[in-house]
Structures are given as structure tokens and as C-alpha cells.
Specification:
The protein is an alpha/beta fold. The chain has 10 helices and 5 strands; from the N terminus they run βαβαβαβαβαααααα. The chain folds into 2 domains: 7-143, Rossmann fold, CATH 3.40.50.2300; 152-218, Orthogonal Bundle (Arc Repressor Mutant, subunit A), CATH 1.10.10.
Length: 219
């Protein structure tokens, strides 16, 4: 009886050094074969199509053309059998639940021990969902209605993308170009964000967005 085929994995991260590190780490597992790499959503879709079949895509949230969340949704449409695991520096309290809702199968922070990534990959390839113990407990409490969500958690995925872009100092025109939406739609999102976060004007919105982005980089 032949040896079981290794799982085929594609890594999507816009930092070449991070891709190299993830590739070397995953290649240390006898159960995994890294068959492709990409630095953006557009590039990832082309790579995944060219090296198909693919079992797992390891994805960062922040990519230069579109969000990793959108890539997860694209993969669900492209091939429902492909599993997604997010490996990111962004706060899991903000993004992990969004990843699961989008169709991802796990979320792990980049500052975790290397063996935890292997554990996460094995769990997802085995058909499970991987989250930290703290995040699992948080989501269970939310489902049980034990804790109200934070104001940031009330934002939709698109509103969160706009909020991030504001925190990066981008104008409505720039945000519209990046997200492929109209300036009027961006401004509507800005209005909804201000309402949800209890902010009075554009200045307060910019201040809070910048402060939140700074807190993310420190995390």
C-alpha cells in the first residue's frame, strides 16, 4: 500500500520574508507540501488555479489589492473543497470570528510558537476548526449572550476595511480605488462607522481610526 499523499498548501502573504519563513516551517512537516506562494489576492487566485489541486491556503488578512477575507470568499466559490487558515498579526478578537463567518477554518496569530502553526494546519486539514483557547471561549460567550460585542465588532467587514484605510491616512477617493467602490459608497460607510462608534465628525473618526491602527501594530 502506497504512502499517503501530502496535503498541497499555498501560502499568501505580501511579505517575502514571512512567506519564506512559513514555507520552511511547513516543509518541516512530512504531511505537507508547499506547492505555491503569492503576495496578493489576484496573484493567489492565479497560482491556486495553476497548481491545482490545492488542499489548504494559508492567508494573511492584509494584502495589497484586496482583503484576505475576500480571498476566503473567492475560494469558497472557486472550489468548496479548499480549506483556508488565516495567519496574521491582526488582533484575533477583531478578525477571527469574521474569518469563520467568511468560510475560513482557523485563525492563528503570527506571534504564536511555530509548533502551534503545525497544530493549526493539521487541525484544519483534518476537517476541524482551529482557534486559540481564549478566542474559542470568547466566541462561546458571545453565542451565549454573556458579553456584548465591542464597538469595533459591530462594524461590517466592509466598514472595517474602510476604517482601517482611514487609519492608514487614505482619502475617500483612495479608499474607493482600493476597494473598487464609489466615493459615495465610501462616504456612506464613513457615516455608518461614525454612528456605530458614537463619533461626531470626520476629525474624531480619523483620530479613532489612527489610534486603533496604532494599537494593532503594537499587538
Amino acid at each position: 500500500m502506497g504512502e499517503k499523499a501530502r496535503a498541497r498548501v499555498v501560502i499568501v502573504d505580501d511579505h517575502p520574508i514571512m512567506r519564506l519563513g512559513l514555507t520552511q516551517l511547513l516543509r518541516s512537516s512530512p504531511r505537507v507540501e508547499v506547492c505555491g506562494e503569492a503576495g496578493s489576492v489576484g496573484e493567489a487566485l492565479k497560482v491556486i488555479e495553476s497548481v491545482s489541486p490545492v488542499d489548504l491556503v494559508v492567508i494573511d488578512i492584509s494584502l495589497p489589492d484586496r482583503s484576505g477575507l475576500e480571498l476566503i470568499r473567492d475560494l469558497k466559490v472557486m472550489d468548496g473543497k479548499i480549506r483556508s487558515l488565516v495567519v496574521s498579526s491582526h488582533d484575533e478578537k477583531v478578525y477571527a470570528e469574521r474569518v469563520i463567518r467568511a468560510g475560513g477554518r482557523g485563525y492563528i496569530m503570527k506571534d504564536r510558537a511555530p509548533e502551534q502553526l503545525i497544530e493549526a494546519v493539521d487541525a484544519v486539514l483534518g476537517g476541524g476548526i482551529f482557534l486559540s483557547h481564549a478566542m474559542t471561549a470568547r466566541m462561546m460567550e458571545t453565542l451565549a449572550g454573556a458579553r456584548a460585542g465591542s464597538p469595533i465588532s459591530a462594524l461590517t467587514d466592509r466598514e472595517l476595511e474602510v476604517f482601517r484605510a482611514i487609519g492608514e491616512g487614505k482619502s475617500s477617493r483612495e479608499i474607493a480605488g482600493i476597494l473598487g467602490i464609489s466615493i459615495r459608497t465610501v462616504d456612506a460607510h464613513r457615516t455608518h462607522i461614525k454612528e456605530k462608534l458614537g463619533l461626531r465628525d470626520a476629525a474624531e473618526l480619523s483620530y479613532e481610526a489612527i489610534r486603533w491602527m496604532e494599537s494593532q501594530s503594537k499587538g
